[in-house]
Design brief:
With 143 residues, the chain is of the alpha+beta class. The protein contains four helices and seven strands. The strands form two sheets. A five-stranded antiparallel β-sheet has the order 1-6-7-4-3. A two-stranded antiparallel sheet has the order 2-5. The longest helix is centred in the N-terminal third of the chain and has 17 residues.
């Protein structure tokens, strides 16, 4: 019994040492399956901006939705946030009058867009029902 356990342990250690580490580029990939049904991503063809700048710009829309703030509520049809190279704009479309969307709902559009398109100028995602009476368009622009 002890011999078979020792052989099993050695066998496991040998094969575990042969396993290749997972590259950081694979570990940091965002899931694109968080896009909600009906939402539409369109990749732009402009310059590629700094991803961190676009993430900070996204979280600064409407006075800021970072941290514990859970909703983007703006009594206007458009709002934007800028950081470094990137401006993120949210616009009420398709009959929308004001912006009222949860941070989670916005992230379900923003994260797959960045994962699919990268932080490219002109990339958009249409979030169905993201504004009062309509939809919401998120767009990446150069600052």
């Amino acid at each position: 019994m002890q011999l078979s356990l020792a052989i099993f342990s050695i066998f496991t250690l040998v094969f575990a040492s042969l396993a290749a580490p997972i590259p950081s580029s694979v570990r940091n990939v965002k899931r694109v399956d968080t896009l909600d049904p009906g939402d539409v991503i369109t990749c732009g063809s402009g310059a590629t901006l700094v991803t961190h700048d676009c993430n900070v710009a996204f979280l600064s829309m409407g006075g800021g939705i970072a941290g514990s703030i859970q909703f983007l509520r703006v009594d206007a049809s458009t709002t934007s946030g800028t950081s470094g190279t990137c401006t993120f704009t949210a616009t009420a479309i398709n009959g929308g009058t004001t912006i009222n969307a949860s941070k989670g709902r916005l992230e379900h559009g923003q994260e797959p867009m960045i994962a699919q398109c990268g932080p490219v100028v002109g990339s958009t995602v249409t979030i169905i029902g993201g504004s009062k009476g309509g939809d919401l368009l998120l767009e990446i622009q150069q600052a």
